[in-house]
Design goal:
The protein has about 150 residues and is an alpha+beta fold. Strands 1-2 form a two-stranded antiparallel sheet. It is flat and about 60 Å long. The two termini are about 30 Å apart.
């Protein structure tokens, strides 16, 4: 999440002088961003898809003007497991509209995005040696050492 601060904020510390410099193209000039940490106990955490959905409902209830905007669930790394899970949960909520009195409206979902996602750790870790070898980053002996790990 710290990396996001370098990409998203209006001002950042950079360069050899370690002074504040204006970020000329922060994402939040164009997009509204909401960060939720997941899985549970990994930072400022929420928990299961049900918990994440409840947190999102709470946000949209507090800020109803955002309900009509496009909404994407995105993340990177191990979130490759949680983004699809939340996406399925949200689609099921959209499919199961019951119109019960007092029930919250289903949330809009326009898409999912996963960057450098760890979706299947066993397969992905087992293929790392071949990937770095094919990219020319490792030679044959280094590939063999990585395969042993």
């Amino acid at each position: 999440m710290i990396r996001n601060l370098f990409e998203l904020v209006t001002w950042r510390i950079e360069g050899p002088d370690l002074l504040l410099h204006q970020n000329t193209a922060p994402w939040n000039r164009v997009f509204g961003l909401l960060f939720l940490d997941s899985p549970i106990r990994s930072g400022f955490t929420i928990g299961t898809s049900d918990d994440l959905y409840a947190a999102l409902q709470g946000f949209f209830n507090l800020k109803p003007l955002f309900r009509g905007r496009p909404f994407y669930v995105a993340g990177e790394s191990y979130v490759g497991k949680y983004v699809p899970s939340l996406g399925v949960y949200m689609l099921n909520k959209l499919d199961n509209k019951t119109g019960e009195e007092g029930r919250a409206l289903p949330l809009r979902l326009d898409g999912l995005a996963i960057g450098n996602g760890l979706t299947h750790p066993i397969v992905q870790v087992q293929s790392q040696a071949s990937v770095v070898y094919a990219a020319g980053l490792f030679d044959s002996p280094e590939k063999l050492r990585l395969e042993i790990l």
